[in-house]
Amino acid sequence: METVNSGRPGSFSRRRQPPVIAERLNLLLISAVAVLTLGLLWLGSHLPLGGTLLCGLLMAFVLLTNYALMHEAAHRVLHGQRWLNDLLGSFAGMLFPMSFTLLRFGHAVHHCCNRTDHEMFDYYYPHDRLWLKYGQWYGLISGLYYPLVPLGSILLAVAPALLRSGPFRRARTTAVLFDDFGAPQIRRVRIEVVATAVFWWAMFAWLDLQWQSVLLMYACFGFNWATRQYVTHAFSRRDVMSGAWNMRVSRPMGWILLNGQWDLVHHQQPWLPWTELAKAGQNSEPPVSYWRHYFRQWLGPRPNTEPAPQPLPRMPD
Questions:
Q1: Of 13, 12, 23, which is closest to residue 73 (Cα–Cα)?
Q2: Would the pLDDT of 249 be above 70?
Q3: Which partner from 30, 59, 67, 95 sits 20 to 30 angstroms from 78, CA to CA?
Q4: Residues of 165-197 as b/e, b for ≥16 C-beta within 10 angstroms?
Q5: For residue 134, what pLDDT is reported?
Q6: Where are the domains of the chain?
Q7: How many other C-beta atoms can be found within 10 angstroms of the C-beta atom of residue 292?
Q8: Which residues pair with 303 in a beta bridge?
Q9: Max CA-CA distance within the chain?
Q10: Average pLDDT of the residues of the chain
């Protein structure tokens, strides 16, 4: 019997049977990522600058896997028990650091508004202010986007009304981003932000972390993460479910990303866990070169030549 995928992140597509989730493997990965991240932070806090930078470079890739696991939790395919899925997602959010609830609801908006005007960073209309489009574009692909994510979590927890005020409503990219945050969601965000603050206070005390070293290592991760966030969408067709690329990466990078390079497959079948994406990719469009497409982004945004697709409807949580 055909059923609608439960939860907002899958509400826009259908599946015929529940996905098979690699629960034990995901638990192992969550644990390994946490141990490696905290171990690198401790080591980097007690080494000279060169050693700290090397730890930061390693952590930049370890935390890519952490984000991939958090993404699985956002689609509720990290663990079959919903309460444990969300708890693990919240823990992964502490390492990012960001509110898992912000990611889950914001990511659902991404799936429903992909390649619409709300998420059109790579193209511009004749009436757009080019200086703003270029600034937005290069800020996105150069890594400046990352600090806005933890800051957004704090703002949503402390002053949610601010994010729904005039300037954010008028901005094309944030006009609908916070529409689905009611009182229950804001309460969850606040709990996650407080829990994250307590977690990091404890880690700094227990591991004797040095804030300068921690900031440097997270800057490495932030750059690595942010520069990859739009590459699987840039210059793809303006279609909500098909506006993405499958990308060709090395096998180790595919493991690090948990098959996140199969983004077209993911957008067309968002209920699939990461362990099934590569298999589904055999029946999808062939992957394009990651590095060729990545460097293509640095040439800047292009004039838009396609009509904007309509956002897909979103269902309540």
A1: 23
A2: yes
A3: 59
A4: eeeeeeeeeeebbbebbeeebbebbbebbeebe
A5: 95
A6: 3-149+193-303
A7: 10
A8: 124
A9: 60
A10: 90
- Pick from 102, 86, 70: which is nearest to 178 by CA? 102
pTM of the model: 0.91
Helix or strand or coil: residue 69? helix
Tokens representing 242? 């098909």
Query: Which amino acid is it at 54?
Result: L
**Site of tokens 């905290």:** 38
State both tokens at 65: 């896997």
Structure-model confidence comparison of residues 208 and 177, the more confident one: 208
User: Rounded distance, CA 268 to CA 85, Å?
Assistant: 22
Band the pLDDT of 35: cuts 50, 70, 90: very high
Distance CA 81, CA 270 (A): 18
To which residue do tokens 């991240």 refer?
Answer: 37
> Where does 49-182 have alpha helices with state H?
49-74, 82-95, 100-113, 130-141, 148-158, 166-170
Residue 199: Cβ-neighbour burial (10 angstroms; 0-12, 13-18, 19+): middle
**Cα separations in angstroms, 290 against 18, 36, 91, 163, 267:** 31, 27, 30, 34, 18
Pair 29, 257: CB distance under 8 Å: no
Contacts of 62 (CB under 8 A, 6+ apart): 33, 36, 37, 40
Measured between alpha carbons, how far is residue 307 from residues 116, 117, 304 in Å? Answer: 9, 10, 8
Residue 179: per-residue pLDDT: 73
Structure tokens at 251: 């096998």
